[in-house]
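Design a sequence for this backbone.
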């Protein structure tokens, strides 16, 4: 094995490393998504192949923005779930007058259109990057709008992903949502990006589709077109032109993964301790894909997907229809945990987050919106109660970003006042974890959002890819807070679930079970491996693993200590 040192194409056996998303593997030929061609700033604006007169250039600019927005909206209309949502948000960016007006002002001053657009995009990109968080992640979308507008203005081909003629590993600097939507996902064996973070769009879309993915892979864009690579998401590695033994190991891992999918029994340990295995969803379409799936219910329905990218909140009727579709899809026998709107910070909404905040992740987000926009919660609870009546299935309803027992009480009163029976809260703030028993005096259940819990415990922005080591849910400090929450649940004999990303890591699932967590909710594609890991170990073994993880000095030591305690067959099948 060699490590990459030069700048030319990495050679056979070279192992590139990045941050893996999920745990699947794939081997296949590289298809590079090349960046848009460089168009000079003074390139002429053309229409029907002929240069546009100077006095008509502003109109051409306006039309180009409108065409790009319309094309993106149309793509969004054909897509579903998260892809549709992110495409809608990119279309809004193309529609946003602030970018277009800045370009038009320069053009009217005599600046060439492409140069004016480049300058405006550079200004906005710098602003977004400085703001950090959600906005920093939108820079890729902004550049994708720029490339599309330039293509329209100059009559050059629109940038896009290459057509895949065979199953391939798609490699890019980063993928904008519009690129991802244009991909034939059936032929995508794996996604590898040089930039992007583990919670960025590429990672989310890969996770939802069960596609192996490695982000932040240094050197990926230098990979030669067509060279075979072995992508191992569990280890965050990309091996160039892998040797026969690596290919065999990957094939064995892929076969084991398939075998895991044949087990459809409810979740539980080898000695029969039950752990509910649930799915995370964002849309009614996601729920409808679960109709015949071996999942015991939904542990997190992120309702904000219905609200994002809009100028006004959806009406009570519209919400009722969407929630009823979800409840109907899961049927009367399966539990559905609906989270009320989690807007703010990385998910800003035009109608909810009215004032810019210096520290939005610490500001009026999640349940705290009840302070400034109480009608949003009231309408949502009304719609959920109506959907429950219509379908005969009562949803469990929980609030995001709860910090205190008093907030929990107020939320539970609102839920019950709306005629709903089961109220819970998310534990994402260390204060709520430390006071879990008092929180559970007020509500029927809690669910740990380990993504935010890690962010707030470690004081590390979850969208900053370079802080991924701090954001690790294996950080012993984060696990201490999970343990405190589980103790609160045991004391009050009430359910304590986990619906953050950590639930989808089979080793972590064992630790969480050992800590006393009663349900695990994850992307459906992650479920078979978690089910398998649980089935191979007793509750006492899980408890020993939890002790080992808590006693470890750091995340790597915790993982290694738990891996040492794994049953040998499980270690082989999980590729540990
Ligand atoms: C979490 O924070 O872990 C969580 C599940 O909520 P979200 O990722 O939607 O913030
Ligand atoms: Mg959260």
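Sequence:
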């Amino acid at each position: 094995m060699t490590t990459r040192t030069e700048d030319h194409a990495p050679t056979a056996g070279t192992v590139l490393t990045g941050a893996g998303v999920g745990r699947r593997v794939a081997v296949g030929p590289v298809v590079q998504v090349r960046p848009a061609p460089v168009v000079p700033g003074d390139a002429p604006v053309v229409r029907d192949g002929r240069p546009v007169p100077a006095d008509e250039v502003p109109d051409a600019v306006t039309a180009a923005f409108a065409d790009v927005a319309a094309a993106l909206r149309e793509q969004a209309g054909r897509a579903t779930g998260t892809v549709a949502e992110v495409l809608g948000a990119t279309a809004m960016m193309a529609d946003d007058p602030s970018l277009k007006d800045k370009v038009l002002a320069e053009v009217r001053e005599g600046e060439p259109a492409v140069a004016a657009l480049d300058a405006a995009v550079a200004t906005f990109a710098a602003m977004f990057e400085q703001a950090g968080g959600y906005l920093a992640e939108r820079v890729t979308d902004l550049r994708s709008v720029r490339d599309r507008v330039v293509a329209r203005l100059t009559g050059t081909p629109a940038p896009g992903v290459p057509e895949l003629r065979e199953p391939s590993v798609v490699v890019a600097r980063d993928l904008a949502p519009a690129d991802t939507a244009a991909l034939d996902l059936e032929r995508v064996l794996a996604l590898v990006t040089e930039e992007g973070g583990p919670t960025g769009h590429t990672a989310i879309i890969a996770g939802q589709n069960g596609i192996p993915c490695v982000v932040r892979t240094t050197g990926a864009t230098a990979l030669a077109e067509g060279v075979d690579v072995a992508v191992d998401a569990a280890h965050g590695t990309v091996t160039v032109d892998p040797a026969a033994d690596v290919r065999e190991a990957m094939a064995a891992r892929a076969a084991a993964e398939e075998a895991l999918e044949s087990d459809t029994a409810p979740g539980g340990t080898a000695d029969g301790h039950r752990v509910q295995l649930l799915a995370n969803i964002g849309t009614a379409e996601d729920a409808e894909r679960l109709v015949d799936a071996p999942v015991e219910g939904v542990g997190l329905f992120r309702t904000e997907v219905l609200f994002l990218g809009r100028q006004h909140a959806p009406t009570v009727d519209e919400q009722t229809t969407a929630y009823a579709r979800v409840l109907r899809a899961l049927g009367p026998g399966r539990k559905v945990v609906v989270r009320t709107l989690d807007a703010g910070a990385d998910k800003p909404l035009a109608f909810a987050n009215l004032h810019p905040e210096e520290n939005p992740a610490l500001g009026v987000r999640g349940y705290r919106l009840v302070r400034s926009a109480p009608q949003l919660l009231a309408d949502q609870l009304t719609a959920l109660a109506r959907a429950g009546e219509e379908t005969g299935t009562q949803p469990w309803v929980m609030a995001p970003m709860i910090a205190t027992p008093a907030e929990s009480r107020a939320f539970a009163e609102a839920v019950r006042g709306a005629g709903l029976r089961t109220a819970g809260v998310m534990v994402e703030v260390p204060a709520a974890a430390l006071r879990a028993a008092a929180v559970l005096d007020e509500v029927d259940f809690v669910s740990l959002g380990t993504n935010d819990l890690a962010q707030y415990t470690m004081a590390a922005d979850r969208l900053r890819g370079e802080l991924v080591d701090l954001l690790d849910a294996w950080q012993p400090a984060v696990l201490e807070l999970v343990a405190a929450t589980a103790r609160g649940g045991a004391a009050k004999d009430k359910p304590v679930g986990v619906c953050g990303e950590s639930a989808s890591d089979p080793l972590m699932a064992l630790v969480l079970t050992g800590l006393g967590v009663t349900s695990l909710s994850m992307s459906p594609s992650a479920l078979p491996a978690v089910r398998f890991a649980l089935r191979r170990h007793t509750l006492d073994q899980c408890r020993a693993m939890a002790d080992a993880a808590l006693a470890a000095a750091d995340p790597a030591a915790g993982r290694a200590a738990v891996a040492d305690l794994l049953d040998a067959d499980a270690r082989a099948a999980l590729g540990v």
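Residues 300, 302, 342, 428, 449-452, 499-500 surround phosphoenolpyruvate (ligand 1) (CB under 6 Å).
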